[in-house]
């Protein structure tokens, strides 16, 4: 008996039919207009894709999971959405919810933030999934964060491009002609595959693009039809991932840079997003020690050990920005390594009577787009290498070593001794600064940082929130020397990244047994507080300590400045800026979402015991939140 | 002689009286410090924040008034927003803030 012919749901066949239909329309317009009038044909029902796949065997979304697994992707952060429902089901059943494991998020913005935090620890991308319309609209801000912060991220969006297959009004409003248009300005690459073979090649390509410096997010569409259709009998092939070697500075430029650095009287290394791995940190130390020169860490990543004698960051302002007479401005040669705002960073040094020479190693020139202005002001340089610092440092170090004579070595060592002394003095000044308001209530951010350090310093810890908001106290007081001990903050400086970013970092840290600590701004948490439920649900060990200053404090200062300039008084600056009346009880909020918590803590003397309890819970594998009521900053 | 002494005493009293408003009221000063948002950048105890620490040794009153009318690195406070008397009160509050403990006496800063 002949097997009955199934209803075709194959994309290729559909497109073939559609093309034929279109050709007919173009070639024979008369035939269309001459169609007999009469009772209209009943509208065709949407084609049941899943039913067809069940009948025919392995669905396309299972194959998509095969591709995802081939890339070693460990985690998938997503809020569920019907347009990628087939893929969701394949991940949890066909893929056994392992590599990737599905983490339930309560907002797509959280999904993207978690992917950023994860990648900054693990140095490989996580996957996020979302509706191609309403989900991606939610996720966009933190995809933009990934773009600005040069973080690899894979986004897969569900969509139904075929209008004939959309179900009802929801199907229509959840469909889009060009899914990735909304993120195209701030992703490295996107694609909308039309077949499973196309999907396989594009996802492998997307991974490669995301992980080639300059790192960044990529986006791919998983058509609902592809997800639900059966895998063709001639199965698509998953291509091998062939990673490109990262771009490194060419030999001539490296040699010239080495000559300038070795000959310089007062060179300075300025690094912002230079280090991604343990090896990167070792290379930074080796270069600095080879040159015995000052290093300023601008804290977008952990670029240099805080207590290293050559670390002169504390002689700049605490955020690593140059101030008059400080290390960057004093330099005669500056080596900038992925320094974001290079123009401002070197302005003082370049505008002085004997301007500093500038060597810039950055992959930023390799990936640049027009619309969003994250590329900063154009900066004149003496040597520019469109290259990855970590990939370039080995040859630069060797080139420098070859040029250093015994006499030069003695001079460099003398310079290093002087720098070490200046660093000790700066450290003492910062400790003295921390003592001000030591017992004040609300709790000073210096006291908060010191209390945290006392409880974590003997652990393998990872601090995963932006230190800028607490005046860089961790960098001023803590001994930090591993790349995962600090990951910087949000690239786009948007509120609503930190809580999710921290949790994603905690996911990555979990397998290493690291104690993850987040000093969490209150306003940021309230953008998507469901992140706490995700922490509880997935037993993600993280210690959230609230930096609860009960305000969008940056904006308080901004409005205060405007009101003062206009001499209208500052009595109303709380309107729209303060998070008071009522004060939010973050401990109760966390408890309601399943996270152990305590607070509010107003007296700094109560902090130590609370942090001890929190750290113990986290070491046992549970999230914990402490609500510390703090000074504004 | 007695008359002369009386004049001296009276003059001294007048001088002291005249200086009293300038000396400021620390309690009122704290309320004003919080009301006009000084603490947003300098901390509730003047310990510093986005701005530097300004207590417990604030600059001289005349200098402080001059600075706040036309500062560098922070918004200006005009007399319409902050009177000279308000500034004197704030200064008194800042002067009353306890000195920070020596670093050596704080174990957490010597870890």
Overall description:
The complex is a heterodimer of chains A (633) and B (111). Chain A has 24 helices and 16 strands. Chain A is an alpha/beta fold and 633 residues long. In chain A, the strands form three sheets. Chain A has a six-stranded parallel beta sheet with strand order 2-1-3-4-6-5, sandwiched between helices. In chain A, strands 8-7-9-10-11 form a five-stranded parallel beta sheet, sandwiched between helices. In chain A, strands 12-13-14-16-15 form a five-stranded parallel beta sheet, sandwiched between helices. With 111 residues, chain B is mostly helical. Chain B has a domain at 24-99: Cytochrome Bc1 Complex, Chain D, domain 2. Chain B has helices at 2-23, 26-35, 38-42, 61-69, 84-96. The longest helix of chain B is centred in the N-terminal third of the chain and has 22 residues, at 2-23. Chain B is globular. Chain B starts with a helix and ends in a 15-residue tail after the last helix. The chains are: A alpha/beta (633), B mainly alpha (111). The A-B interface holds A 428, 431-438, 440, 442, 444-445, 447, 450-451, 453-454, 457, 471, 477, 553, 556-557, 560-561, 564-565, 567-571, 573, 631-633 and B 35-37, 39-41, 43-50, 53, 55, 75-78, 80-81, 100-103, 106, 108-109, 111.
Shape verdict of chain B: globular
CATH topology of the domain at 24-99 in chain B: Cytochrome Bc1 Complex, Chain D, domain 2
- Helical amount of chain A: 40-55%
Regions of chain B with pLDDT < 50 over 5+ consecutive residues?
Answer: 1-21
Mean pLDDT of chain A: 91
CATH top level assignment of the domain at 24-99 in chain B: Mainly Alpha
């Amino acid at each position: 008996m002949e097997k009955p012919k199934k209803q075709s749901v194959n994309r290729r066949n559909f497109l073939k039919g559609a093309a034929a239909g279109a050709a007919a329309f173009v070639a024979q317009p008369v035939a269309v207009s001459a169609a007999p009038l009469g009772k209209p044909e009943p509208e065709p029902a949407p084609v049941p894709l899943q039913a067809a796949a069940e009948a025919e065997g392995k669905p396309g979304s299972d194959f998509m999971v095969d591709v995802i697994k081939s890339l070693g992707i460990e985690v998938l952060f997503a809020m569920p959405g019907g347009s990628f429902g087939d893929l969701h089901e394949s991940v949890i059943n066909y893929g056994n919810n392992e590599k990737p494991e599905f983490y339930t998020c309560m907002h797509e913005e959280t999904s993207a933030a978690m992917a950023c935090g994860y990648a900054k620890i693990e140095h490989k991308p996580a996957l996020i999934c979302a509706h191609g319309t309403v989900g991606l609209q939610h996720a966009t801000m933190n995809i933009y964060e990934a773009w600005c912060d040069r973080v690899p991220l894979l986004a897969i969006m569900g969509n139904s491009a075929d209008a004939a297959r959309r179900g009802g009004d929801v199907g229509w409003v959840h469909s889009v002609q060009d899914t990735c248009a909304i993120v195209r300005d701030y992703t490295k690459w996107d694609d909308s595959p039309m077949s499973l073979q196309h999907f396989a090649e594009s996802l492998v390509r997307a991974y490669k693009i995301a992980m080639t410096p300059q790192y960044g997010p990529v986006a791919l569409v998983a058509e609902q039809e592809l997800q639900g259709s059966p895998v063709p009998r001639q199965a698509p092939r998953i291509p091998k991932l062939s990673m490109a070697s990262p771009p490194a500075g060419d030999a001539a430029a490296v040699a010239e840079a080495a000559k300038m650095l070795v000959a310089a009287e007062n060179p300075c290394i300025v690094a912002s997003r230079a280090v991604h791995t343990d090896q990167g940190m070792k290379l930074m130390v080796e270069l600095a020690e080879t040159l015995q020169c000052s290093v300023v860490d601008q804290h977008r990543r952990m670029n240099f050990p805080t207590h290293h004698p050559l670390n002169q960051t504390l002689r700049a302002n605490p955020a690593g920005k140059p101030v008059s007479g400080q290390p960057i401005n004093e330099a005669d040669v500056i080596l900038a390594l992925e320094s974001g705002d290079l123009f401002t960073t070197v302005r003082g040094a370049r505008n002085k009577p004997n301007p500093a020479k500038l060597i810039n190693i950055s992959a930023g020139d390799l990936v640049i787009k027009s619309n969003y202005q994250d590329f900063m002001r154009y900066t004149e340089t003496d040597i520019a290498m469109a290259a990855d610092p970590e990939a370039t440092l080995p040859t630069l170090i060797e080139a420098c070593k070859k040029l250093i004579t015994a006499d030069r070595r003695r001079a460099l060592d003398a310079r290093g001794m002087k720098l070490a002394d200046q660093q000790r003095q700066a450290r003492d000044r910062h400790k003295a600064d921390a003592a001000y308001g030591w017992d004040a209530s609300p709790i000073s951010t210096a006291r908060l940082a010191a209390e945290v350090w006392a409880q974590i310093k003997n652990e393998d810890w990872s601090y995963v929130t932006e230190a800028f908001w607490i005046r860089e106290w961790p960098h001023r007081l803590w001994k930090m020397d591993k790349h995962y001990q600090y990951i910087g903050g949000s690239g786009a400086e948007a509120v609503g990244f930190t809580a999710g970013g921290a949790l994603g970092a905690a996911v990555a840290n979990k397998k290493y047994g690291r104690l993850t600590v987040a000093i969490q701004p209150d306003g940021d948490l309230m953008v998507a507080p469901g992140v706490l439920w995700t922490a509880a649900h997935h037993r993600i060990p993280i210690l959230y300590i609230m930096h609860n200053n009960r305000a969008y404090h940056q904006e308080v200062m901004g409005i205060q400045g405007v009101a003062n300039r206009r001499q209208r008084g500052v009595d109303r600056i709380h309107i729209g800026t303060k998070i008071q009346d009522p004060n939010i009880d973050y401990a109760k909020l966390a408890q309601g979402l399943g996270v152990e918590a305590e607070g509010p803590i107003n007296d700094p003397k109560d902090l130590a015991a609370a942090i001890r309890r929190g750290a113990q819970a986290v070491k046992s594998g549970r999230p914990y939140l402490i609500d510390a009521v703090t000074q504004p900053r | 002689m007695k008359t002369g002494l009386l004049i001296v005493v009276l003059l001294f009293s007048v001088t002291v009286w005249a200086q009293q408003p300038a000396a400021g009221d620390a309690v009122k000063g704290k309320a004003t410090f919080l009301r006009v948002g000084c603490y947003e950048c300098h901390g509730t105890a003047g310990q510093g924040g986005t701005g530097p620490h300004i207590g417990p040794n604030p600059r001289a009153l005349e200098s402080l008034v001059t600075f706040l009318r036309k500062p560098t690195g922070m918004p200006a406070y005009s007399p319409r927003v902050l009177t000279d008397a308000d500034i004197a009160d704030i200064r008194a509050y800042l002067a009353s803030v306890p000195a920070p403990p020596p670093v050596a006496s704080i174990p957490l800063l010597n870890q």
